[in-house]
Write a structure and sequence with these properties.
215 residues, alpha/beta, Rossmann fold, two-stranded antiparallel sheet
Length: 215
């Protein structure tokens, strides 16, 4: 990678700003995170298009607008301890790592987790902690978290994960509601009560519970 700015990243950030992303810190994190590092070789020519792309194990790397919008909805700062469910390619975790103190990310597919680990090392992102396991269980040993982000669609409100959210914390998760998936922002107030807000409709692979896969 050359030392100068990649015009493709600049064009992507401009497109995301035009699409409605307004948080300068989030846009800056996306600008500093080369998406081509996270995209399979056969899709390199589409790495900076605002669209999801297939990755290994039948999964996808999310559309950059969705990555940015979910990150923006978390209202991150550099003190936040974040739980991510679904490492996938690692792109979302890499963006989060530019903004948060530490990111704990869980992936059920060993192949994806190992590939993401290599990418984090290449980008020198040392504040990401990984686990291979059942994302539906979260990471109770590290709970509670300031922020939680789920990158697969839950069949219902993910209460098991939300129990790991601190008072004052924020979680975002796509939830299946009938035939559509809606991105929901959950906020736990200082009294411990949860409040939810529907943001927009999305399309994610389903959140699968159970033992980690060997793949």
């Amino acid at each position: 990678m050359s030392g100068g700015p990649d015009i493709r990243i600049i064009q992507l950030v401009m497109a995301l700003r035009s699409a409605g992303l307004s948080d300068k810190a989030v846009l800056g994190a996306i600008e500093r995170t080369p998406r081509d590092v996270f995209v399979p070789q056969g899709f390199q020519d589409q790495a900076y298009e605002n669209r999801p792309l297939p990755i290994d194990c039948g999964q996808t790397i999310s559309q950059p607008f969705v990555v940015g919008a979910m990150t923006q909805a978390l209202k991150l700062d550099d003190r936040c301890k974040v739980l991510e469910i679904g490492t996938g390619s690692g792109y979302q975790a890499a963006v989060l790592a530019r903004l948060a103190r530490r990111v704990y990310t869980v992936e059920r597919y060993r192949t994806l987790s190992k590939e993401a680990e290599a990418r984090f090392a290449e980008l020198r992102l040392s504040n990401i902690v990984q686990r291979i396991g059942d994302g539906a269980l979260g990471w109770p040993e590290q709970a509670p978290f300031d922020r939680i982000i789920v990158t697969a669609a839950a069949p219902e409100r993910p209460d098991g994960l939300l129990e790991q959210l601190k008072p004052g914390g924020i979680a975002v998760a796509p939830v299946q509601q009938g035939k559509v998936q809606t991105l929901i922002r959950y906020t736990r107030d200082d009294a411990g009560d949860l409040h939810e807000e529907a943001l927009f409709d999305v399309r994610f692979v389903p959140l699968v519970s159970g033992a980690a896969r060997a793949l």
